[in-house]
Amino acid sequence: MKTLEEIKQALASQKERLREEYQVEELRIFGSYVRKEADGGRDTDILVEFSKPISLFTFLELEDHLSNVLDVPVDLVPKHGLKPGIRNRVLAEAVTV
To answer: Is 43 a catalytic residue?
Structure first.
């Protein structure tokens, strides 16, 4: 199982490509990895903000790309899609890459 720091480093190494190919403005890790509750069977929760709108196909392609980079399943969540009930908690715990 990867550590939070290993995940951050892997994502940081992709920043330029993510910006150019997927219009990624910002990535943040949240959830079990940040709370140190992750085990081998969990996915990695990643909050994403885009510089401009992308298609659903591109979003799914990005999620798949990040899963391959991290070698773990990724649950990609657009920042604008956070539900009001969890928005503040997610933003408070999220770690910027």
So the answer is: yes
